[in-house]
Amino acid sequence: MIFGLTFPEAAVIGLLFAAIQFGAMIYLASLGEMIAERAGVLNLGVEGMMAMGAVGGFVFAIETGNPWLGLLAAAVIGGAVAMIHGLFAVVLGANQVVSGLALTIFGVGLANFWGTDYEGLRPEVQFVDVDWGPLSDISWIGRILFQQSPLAYSAVLLGCLTWFVLNRTRGGLALRAAGESAATADAAGHSVLGLRLFAVAIGGAFAGIGGAYLSLSISPGWTVGVVAGRGWIAVALVIFGAWKVRRVALGAFLFGLAMALPNRTESFDLPWDPILWSMLPYILTIAVMIAGALVLRNRPPPAPAALGLPFRREER
Amino acid sequence: MKSAEGNKGTKALWRVLALLLVFVMIAAACGDDDGDDGEADDGSTASDDMDDGDMDDMDDDGHDHDDDMDDDGHDHDDDMDDMDDGDMDDMDDMGDMDGDFSAAFLYISPVGEAGWTWAHDQGRLYAEEATGIPTVFVDSIDDTSAADTEAAIRTLVADGHDVIIGTSFGYMDTMEAMADEFPDVVFEHVSGYKANETNFGNTFGKIYQPRYLTGMIAGAATETNQIGYVAAFPIPEVARGINAFTLGAQRVNPDVEVVVQWTSTWFDPAIEGDAADALLEGGADVIAMHQDTTSAGLAAEAAGARWVSYNSDMSEFAPDAYLASAIWNWGPRYAEIISSAADGSYAPGFYWGGYADGIVDIGSIADDVDSDIVAQVQDIRQQMIDGTFAVFSGPLFAQDGTQLLAEGEVMDPGMLLGEAFFVQGVVGDIG
């Protein structure tokens, strides 16, 4: 008993398991958005790309009978849909906010349309949680860390890979340069357009995988509204994480907790109306924005300097 | 200078082009609201041509289901599919110019293979068969958007439909306003609490009756004496279901507890599955639920637990976990509304049908349920049909032990409709 609250062991383990599961799902989408933003492209289409990944992943998994092919399809579809944003925002230099919002509306609409025949179908194909043998049997940690879906581990892997590529390779340096000072990157002989398109495509692929995490693992099956606004949380998380791989991971875990806790108000015997608890992820989003703004008032912003600015040679 | 101006011109052109394309994208995305007649049409064509494997399964199940449930629904589905196409095409080609009477349904989500909207669509198909009056539906009309709802209704009225049936709570206010504007069209709203004197009526059913029966089955099935209930919102409709379910469970198992976890959702698979997980972690070995998704059942299946479904028979989604289901049977009521509107005898009001009216029932019962329990369930079911069994009757105690009804007392409709409390044996808070 702490502060009059009870912490039953099974509920705490369940909470942490679910927090990692939800966190990894949002993390994938956030990581993708972060890559695009590090290259200077704000993509507000995450929700749409996740919806396309969720429906595409489910459709291909059902049709091929293999969840991994579904996952591959989700990544490809996510990347392909992201190229719509690439065309408008990067190649044509249109307003990135408008183009991203349009991508969300378009992506969600197209996913709903595509999914009509797959709505509520039995999920005959889905990812099975990984069994790490003796590791999975360890008390507490075994359940929390070693019985997750393969997608949770792929999120960790992709996070490490992203960190390495961004911070330890020439290509990553060039990509960051495109986001900090596109003209400089251009002068150094890099194709800003190419780098940005690549970053947007990878971002879309990651968002697609995040969507497939929902439709192939967390709540197997396709239904309209399965993404339920989580794409927007992913966008907010990038700001929360100050465009850094590890901080975004930490933020994703926090949001995972905020998603999982309201489902356990009874297990923890929490006070107040459950509806208040279910607001937690959104309250957290707003709180993070306010806190971020206050903390950063007198400091250089952590955002990539050229974020949101279209690049055209000889214009500035 | 010249090149700079040229550059500016190109830039402006690109911007206009980009904006235009963005608008096209938005229009395309929103287009699925407008093109719903077409979509409905596509839907029924697709079920004939494309998805042979799945759809056939579904039809077969549909038959079994009908056979179990009532005797009048044998070969509906196949006939319906054929008929449907014809009607739909007619509708599209000629609208209502021939003066045919027709009805239209407004759904919140696609029909799918099970659940709330699927159950309504079964009702629509039944009504079409029973009355011979053609029907159409539009799906995925967001009930939190009055504008979307109104646009859909206006389109249906303009297409010449004479009855509009809306099957989601949020359509209520828009339908009320539309009923005023179009006095010649009959509007029937499902699940709300409003009606007018002339052309706007309300329909709902006493789903708590079959919930009591599923509670009996769940109460007999639990070994931990703990049943988890994944609950939507703390409103009377949900509380009534939880209470009836609990009373049913207690009838066969006095030691049983029903633990309630609210999700504050009607439809969020990720959250509802997780809430079921939390209840299972807490020691429940049977899960009941109120939302429109199957994810609580999938969670129970994955955990090797049991599950009671709602809205429609969802046995095929979690074949090992499935125990029983409380289901809707809208067909007879829809046939009644449509035929009375057609012959001018329609009178709006508040319809709250129960077992005696055939609007609710239980779905298939799992094979491994004890035959003695099944016999008890069948017995109570018959008493409900005969109108001799009241779920909420004395002695009845509230969660905190205060007596609500004395021996022999039956809950009055006002208290029943406003049920905002839990009965003894429910673990959890309400409002």
SSE inventory with pairings:
The complex is a heterodimer of chains A (316) and B (431).
Chain A (H helix, E strand, L loop, with lengths): L8 H30 L7 H19 L2 H25 L4 H19 L19 H4 L3 H6 L3 H19 L1 H11 L1 H6 L4 H27 L11 H11 L4 H16 L13 H5 L1 H16 L21
Helix pairs in contact in A: 1-7, 1-10, 1-11, 1-12, 2-3, 2-4, 2-10, 2-11, 3-4, 3-10, 7-8, 8-10, 11-12, 11-14
Chain B lengths: L1 H33 L1 H14 L2 H18 L6 H19 L8 E4 L9 H16 L3 E4 L7 H13 L4 E4 L5 H10 L4 E5 L9 E6 L2 H14 L4 E6 L4 H17 L4 E6 L6 H13 L4 E4 L5 H8 L3 E6 L10 E7 L2 H12 L7 E4 L6 E3 L8 H16 L9 E2 L5 E3 L7 H5 L8 E2 L4
Parallel strand pairs in B: 1-2, 1-3, 3-4, 4-5, 5-11, 6-7, 6-8, 7-15, 8-9, 9-10
Antiparallel strand pairs in B: 10-12, 13-14
Task: Note down, in words, how this protein is organized.
Chain A has 316 residues and is mainly alpha-helical. In chain A, α2 (46-64) runs parallel beside α4 (96-114) and α8 packs across α10. Chain A starts with 8 loop residues before the first helix and ends in a 21-residue tail after the last helix. Chain A is built from 14 helices and no strands. Chain B has three domains: 1-34; 36-205 and 331-356, Response regulator (Rossmann fold), CATH 3.40.50; 208-328 and 392-427, Rossmann fold (3-Layer(aba) Sandwich). Mean pLDDT of chain B is 81; it is low at 1-6 and 31-98. By secondary structure, chain B is α/β, with parallel strands linked by helices. In chain B, 49% of the residues are buried. In chain B, α6 packs parallel to α7. Chain B has 14 helices and 15 strands. In chain B, the strands form three sheets. Chain B has a seven-stranded mixed β-sheet, with helices on both faces. A six-stranded parallel β-sheet of chain B has the order 2-1-3-4-5-11, with helices on both faces. At the A-B interface, α1, α4 and α13 of A face α1, α2, β7 and α10 of B.
